Amino acid sequence: MNVAKLPQGMLQSAELDGRDKALVAAIQTGLPLCPHPYAEIGRRIGMEEAEVIQRLQRLLDDEFIKRMGVVVRHHELGYRANAMVVWDVPDSQVAELGRCLGQFDFITLCYQRPRRLPQWRYNLFCMIHGRDRDEVIGCVDLVIEQCALQDIAHEVLFSRRRFKQRGARY
Amino acid sequence: MTHRINQQLNEANNVSLPLSMLERRLLNDFQHDFPLTATPYADIAARLGVTEQEVIDTLQKLQEQGAISRVGAVFRPNRVGVSTLAAMAVAPERLDEVAQLVNGYAEVNHNYEREHEFNLWFVATARDTLHLKTVLHEIEVRSGIKVLYLPLVEDYHIDLGFDLKWS
Prior knowledge:
The complex is a heterodimer.
Chain A (H helix, E strand, L loop, with lengths): L17 H10 L9 H9 L3 H13 L3 E8 L8 E8 L5 H9 L4 E6 L11 E7 L2 H14 L6 E13 L5
Antiparallel strand pairs in A: 2-4, 2-5, 3-4
Helix pairs in contact in A: 1-2, 2-3
Chain B lengths: L1 H12 L7 H9 L10 H9 L3 H14 L2 E8 L6 E7 L6 H9 L4 E7 L5 E7 L2 H15 L4 E3 L3 E2 L12
Antiparallel strand pairs in B: 2-4, 2-5, 3-4
């Protein structure tokens, strides 16, 4: 299923039954670090280990879950600079340029979002993590060249302070 | 390069270093395709040639040090519940106060100061759009500052984790 082609927000929780929702709630702060983590999750919500595993597999297959694994914190691992780079792309080119940006491994998010004129003109957002500002700026220069963005207005919004960072709670 | 990463980690967190090869492999090689088996840590241990307890202890330590936020699922935005990016242009002298007001909402999971006239950027998540918009509206009313509502329209990034490039 190509999720990118489906309207966002149209097919959300409707496809999750009550047991899926209980499972999502139970894992959103992370898997326990014990020998049988899925059994432990199941114990908390009254579900057999096999059912936990089978439901998680389906959530992955249906792309409710993007990935399962270690979620690293960039800043703590030496990636001290992060910038949100925003682009004002003609609507007809958003998909093409979004896909071009999305392929770089230093880009960790790449989303189209609505403009809010007159205050906000930018409609394509990507996040770049680097060890320092120069590395991030080098990455911006690289994608401008590789994706032919020379004529596209953009701004680089470096982060200053992190007030909060954790996983989503639904 | 290894030395440089370690130095930065030390400065950041007083982590006792150097990062072991086991820590590096756990950080870099298991950001996706985490085993969906009864004993995932034992399976990882078998692949890395260490014991299950070493894997668990090392992940525990990395979590305590803040190098990983969790081992678990990254949900695709707007498939389980709804979320949005939001931005505010806050006068510098009010930034701390407004950031704390925003932080006070359990629905907010990321909140950053950024270098721009729109200097406060946060992500809010809720079970449905009505609840999400209620939170943003409440933040507007309480702060007296307009909130730009910037929900996702399309996702162009395939999330395979982040290559930490140790070498």
